[in-house]
Structure formats: structure tokens, C-alpha cells
């Protein structure tokens, strides 16, 4: 089991990343979003300090640590008000999948760039009709000689405009059963037949969302990542880190909102004393803090299990962590806005934009209802209704 108390190294990592994040802060982040730009300066500095690739193997330029350390990086940047969403996608999902299942050539080609931030990769699984249900995905890959031909559509793919390639989840026919099984393919941004359309979102985020179309995209044999027959094993090697990192993202956001609310409640006086002295203000903030701390414990457990190679245990814990963190984040943001009253909806305090962002953690990459399905079926052994 993971230690309840973090190691000195982890505390030092938190402190260093927190210091970096505060030098940029929420103002930098909101200005970047308003300009329609990307947080390139922060991304490059974090890369130069080794934070982006902290989870990737040392042999390929990474830090040799794990998802535990990468999740701490994301949480602390979020707590400073400037989370980097592409940390979830590029090093956590794509980097992990390539490190675990890629060929030696794929590792040499991609991991050093993902680690130093000079290359970025997106991840495409969600589809217009299937959502993220890997059993209903319609993006298919068929063999034509030694090549693969991919056809299909993906939606809500983050950061495609930044990405050198997108790791696409497609389905291939199993020669033994004839059934379709998920497989992962590296699709370069310039591949013929691979097009993107930006999706307009009512969400303040530097990372844009895209719909992708794959129209008979021809890929060489080495575009396949991992074993063609491994199927769901390889897919969930990327999805479990995604859930853990999303939990860290949500916890960081919740901590940022809570910190702003606590600072306001200490200073704002309407009567003879600060409003934080009143239990109607203080108690909900205390509850928000407790729930964020509890979500953090489950997130660390999930990361520890994943880094220890316990994929089954990590799957259960990662889902629970993502659920707990999303709920804690939404409540923390809501209470923070409520504590500030009208000020909570102003640009000056930077909380109103988090209302929409916090809800994303409940929806993506998997909805809270599907997590409850997972826990009720896998953990509690209850029958399925679908």
C-alpha cells in the first residue's frame, strides 16, 4: 500500500512545481486563454526543469519516476491556477502507452521529445455515437498489404493543433474470432485523409477541442503501437493514468478555488469581524478542504498501484479517485464562488471560469455514472442492466 504521508522527495517536488506555477499564476493563464494562445512559456520552462517527462524512462530522456510524480506536477500547477491539460494527454497517456508497449524504434522516436516538451501527442478515443465505449467504436483499421487503412471519426480530442501526431483508438478484426478488437495507431498530423475541425466550446481553456475525420488514412505497419492481439490491456494502460491525472487536475483546481475563498474570508469584513469567523462560511470551506484531502489520498493510492504494476487494482482505484476528485472539485469551486458572492463572478477573482471547468471533471474522460457502474459491477459484484 502507498504511504499515507508523502516522502520528502515528493514534498520537495510539490514545492518546486508550486513555485514555478505561482511565477506564472492565474493571470498568465487567463490572459493566454483570452488571446487564443497556448501556455507555451510555462510548457517550455516546465519541460526544461524535467517536469513534463518525470514519468518517462530515463533511457529515453525522462525522469524515471511514475504517474505518482507526474500527477503531483499537474496538481501543483493547478493549485497555482495554471494547469497544463496536455500533461494528461501527451506524457501520461501517450507517453505511457509507448513506453510500455511501443517498439524500440517508437520509443526512440517519440519518448525523448515527449519528455523535453519539443513534441506533443494527442489522444483520440471518443466518437460521436459511441462516446468512449470501446466496444462500440466504429473507427476501423484494415490491412492492405503491409499497410493499415484507418476510417472513422473522433470528437473532443484535445490539443490536436499542437500535436505532431495523434494516438488513435481503432478496431481491427480478430483473425480467430472475426470480432473487432481495439488497437492503437500513431497518426501523423500531415497524414493524407486526416483532417480536423475545431469544436466551439463554452469553456475557458487554452487547449482547444477538435473533431477528427480519418478518410482511408494509409499508415505503415509500424504505426501500430504494441501487440495487435493485446486489445483492451494496452488501451487501459493509457486510460488508468488518464483517470489518475484527471483526478490530480480536479484536485488542483479545487485547491486553487479554496485558497482564494479562504483568503477572501479572512479579509472580508461586513460586520465587526471577517466573514470567515462565521460558521456558515467557515464550515462549508472546511468540508471542501476535507473532501479534497480525501480525494488526494485515493489519487495517491491509484498512482501507487499503477506504478507498482497492479493494473487491476489501479483500474478500480483510478476510477474511485477520479469520481472523488471531481465531486470534491465541483463542491469546492461552488463554495468558493458562493463565499465571494458577487465578487465570485467577476474576472478579478478568477473563479467564475472554473464553474464550467469543474464540471468537465465529472464528465470527462468518463462520466461519474459510468464510474458508479464500474464500482457496482466490478467491486460490489452487482448485475449489469446493460
From TrEMBL:
Annotated ranges, domain Acyl-CoA oxidase/dehydrogenase middle: 122-215
Looking at the record, the residues that make up the Acyl-CoA dehydrogenase/oxidase N-terminal domain are 7-117
What Pfam families does the record point to?
Acyl-CoA_dh_1 (PF00441), Acyl-CoA_dh_M (PF02770), Acyl-CoA_dh_N (PF02771)
- The record lists the organism as Streptomyces griseoaurantiacus
Keywords of the record, alphabetical order, are:
FAD, Flavoprotein, Oxidoreductase
**Needed cofactors:** FAD
GO MF terms listed in the record are: acyl-CoA dehydrogenase activity; flavin adenine dinucleotide binding
Protein name per the record: Acyl-CoA/acyl-ACP dehydrogenase
Q: Which Gene Ontology cellular-component terms appear in the entry?
A: cytoplasm
The UniProt entry, under Gene3D superfamilies, shows:
Acyl-CoA dehydrogenase/oxidase, N-terminal domain (1.10.540.10), Butyryl-CoA Dehydrogenase, subunit A, domain 2 (2.40.110.10), Butyryl-CoA Dehydrogenase, subunit A, domain 3 (1.20.140.10)
Protein family: Belongs to the acyl-CoA dehydrogenase family.
| Acyl-CoA dehydrogenase/oxidase C-terminal domain: residues covered | 231-376
Report any one BP term from Gene Ontology. Answer: fatty acid beta-oxidation using acyl-CoA dehydrogenase
Q: Which SUPFAM superfamilies match?
A: Acyl-CoA dehydrogenase C-terminal domain-like (SSF47203), Acyl-CoA dehydrogenase NM domain-like (SSF56645)
**InterPro entries linked to this entry:** Acyl-CoA_dehydrogenase, Acyl-CoA_Oxase/DH_mid-dom, Acyl-CoA_Oxase/DH_mid-dom_sf, AcylCo_DH-like_C, AcylCo_DH/oxidase_C, AcylCoA_DH/ox_N, AcylCoA_DH/ox_N_sf, AcylCoA_DH/oxidase_NM_dom_sf
Amino acid at each position: 500500500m502507498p504511504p499515507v504521508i508523502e516522502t520528502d522527495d515528493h514534498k520537495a517536488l510539490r514545492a518546486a512545481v508550486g513555485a514555478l506555477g505561482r511565477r506564472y499564476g492565474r493571470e498568465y493563464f487567463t490572459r493566454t486563454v483570452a488571446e487564443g494562445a497556448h501556455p507555451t512559456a510555462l510548457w517550455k520552462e516546465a519541460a526544461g526543469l524535467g517536469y513534463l517527462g518525470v514519468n518517462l524512462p530515463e533511457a529515453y530522456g525522462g525522469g524515471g519516476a511514475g504517474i505518482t510524480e507526474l500527477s503531483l506536477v499537474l496538481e501543483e500547477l493547478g493549485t497555482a491556477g495554471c494547469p497544463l491539460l496536455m500533461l494528461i494527454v501527451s506524457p501520461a497517456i501517450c507517453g505511457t502507452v509507448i513506453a510500455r508497449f511501443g517498439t524500440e524504434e517508437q520509443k526512440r522516436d517519440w519518448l525523448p521529445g515527449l519528455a523535453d516538451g519539443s513534441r506533443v501527442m494527442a489522444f483520440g478515443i471518443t466518437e460521436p455515437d459511441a462516446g468512449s465505449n470501446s466496444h462500440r467504436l466504429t473507427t476501423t483499421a484494415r490491412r492492405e498489404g503491409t499497410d493499415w487503412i484507418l476510417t472513422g471519426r473522433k470528437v473532443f480530442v484535445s490539443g490536436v493543433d499542437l500535436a505532431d501526431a495523434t494516438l488513435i483508438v481503432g478496431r481491427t478484426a480478430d483473425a480467430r474470432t472475426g470480432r473487432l478488437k481495439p488497437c492503437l495507431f500513431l497518426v501523423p498530423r500531415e497524414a493524407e485523409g486526416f483532417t480536423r475541425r475545431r469544436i466551439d466550446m463554452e469553456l475557458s481553456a487554452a487547449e482547444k477541442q477538435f473533431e477528427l475525420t480519418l478518410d482511408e488514412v494509409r499508415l505503415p505497419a509500424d504505426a501500430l503501437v504494441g501487440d495487435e492481439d493485446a486489445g483492451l490491456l494496452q488501451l487501459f494502460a493509457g486510460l488508468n493514468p488518464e483517470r489518475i491525472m484527471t483526478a490530480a487536475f480536479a484536485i488542483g483546481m479545487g485547491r486553487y478555488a479554496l485558497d482564494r475563498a479562504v483568503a477572501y474570508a479572512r479579509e472580508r469584513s461586513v460586520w465587526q469581524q471577517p466573514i470567515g469567523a462565521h460558521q456558515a462560511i467557515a464550515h462549508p470551506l472546511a468540508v471542501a478542504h476535507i473532501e479534497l484531502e480525501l480525494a488526494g489520498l485515493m489519487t495517491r493510492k491509484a498512482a501507487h498501484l499503477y506504478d507498482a504494476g497492479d493494473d487491476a487494482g489501479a483500474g478500480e482505484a483510478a476510477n474511485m479517485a477520479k469520481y472523488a476528485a471531481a465531486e470534491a472539485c465541483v463542491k469546492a469551486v461552488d463554495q468558493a464562488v458562493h463565499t465571494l458572492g458577487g465578487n465570485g463572478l467577476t474576472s478579478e477573482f478568477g473563479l467564475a471560469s472554473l464553474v464550467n471547468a469543474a464540471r468537465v471533471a465529472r464528465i470527462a474522460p468518463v462520466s461519474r455514472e459510468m464510474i458508479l457502474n464500474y464500482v457496482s459491477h466490478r467491486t460490489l459484484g452487482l448485475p449489469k442492466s446493460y
